[in-house]
């Protein structure tokens, strides 16, 4: 079966299952399997895929039909132009969270400072900020060791040496970090609190 036909079939399955973006989901999943980008896919849609690629793609589409997010299926998500590894141990970085990065950057006109990101997850906010402000020291903190390890791997992959990550065993451990003067900016998306950026 050609890649175009495979995509059309998968997009129909995803549409029937209620995906809000069936064609894009199918394209992202197929690109992941093929190790190619979407431009290549549009250019070479008449190519045939191997039986292994077809079977693997079908398995991913079936998982997406069951509701598994695309970012968990591919193990990555782009945020602020950075490719971040993802896992079910963290929330998936959302495009609308980029407004939090914009707000933090607008409050950070000085060349140096310190940002604390509570509930860092994949490190998306911390790493986006660190990529824009290389003179700043950024600390991402999370309750889950798996999240901290993932964020640290993302920082290493991106080569962002001004961002580091650590765990806190409870909310009380975070309190000393929030003392006035310790950090220039505090970012938090912990629990169900709306994203907040404040100068402290």
From TrEMBL:
Q: Where is the Methyltransferase domain?
A: 114-167
Tell me yes or no: is Transferase among this UniProt entry's keywords.
Answer: yes
> Which keywords belong to this entry?
Methyltransferase, S-adenosyl-L-methionine, Transferase
**Keyword field contains Lipid metabolism:** no
Q: Which GO terms describe its biological process?
A: methylation
Task: Return the protein name.
Answer: Release factor glutamine methyltransferase N-terminal domain-containing protein
InterPro entries in UniProt: HemK-like, Methyltranfer_dom, N5-glutamine_MTase, PrmC_N, SAM-dependent_MTases_sf
**Domain Release factor glutamine methyltransferase N-terminal residues, every copy:** 6-75
Family annotation (CDD domains)? AdoMet_MTases
GO MF annotation terms: protein-glutamine N-methyltransferase activity
- State the taxonomy lineage: Bacteria, Pseudomonadati, Pseudomonadota, Gammaproteobacteria, Oceanospirillales
Which species is this UniProt entry from?
Vreelandella sulfidaeris
């Amino acid at each position: 079966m050609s890649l175009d036909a495979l995509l059309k079939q998968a997009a129909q399955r995803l549409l029937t299952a209620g995906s809000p973006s069936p064609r894009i989901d199918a394209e992202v999943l197929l690109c992941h399997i093929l190790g190619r980008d979407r431009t290549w896919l549009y250019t070479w849609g008449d190519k045939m895929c191997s039986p292994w690629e077809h079977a693997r793609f079908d398995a991913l589409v079936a998982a997406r039909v069951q509701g598994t997010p695309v970012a968990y299926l591919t193990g990555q998500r782009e945020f602020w132009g950075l490719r971040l590894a993802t896992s079910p141990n963290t929330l998936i970085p959302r495009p609308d969270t980029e407004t939090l990065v914009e707000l933090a950057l607008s409050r950070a006109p000085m060349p140096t400072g310190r940002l604390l990101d509570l509930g860092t997850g994949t490190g998306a906010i911390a790493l986006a900020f660190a990529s824009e402000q290389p003179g700043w020291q950024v600390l991402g903190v999370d309750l889950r060791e798996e999240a901290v390890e993932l964020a640290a791997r993302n920082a290493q992959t991106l080569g962002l040496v001004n961002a580091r990550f650590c765990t806190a065993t409870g909310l009380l451990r975070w309190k000393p970090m929030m003392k006035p003067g310790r950090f220039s900016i505090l970012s938090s998306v912990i629990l169900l609190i709306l994203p907040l950026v404040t100068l402290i």
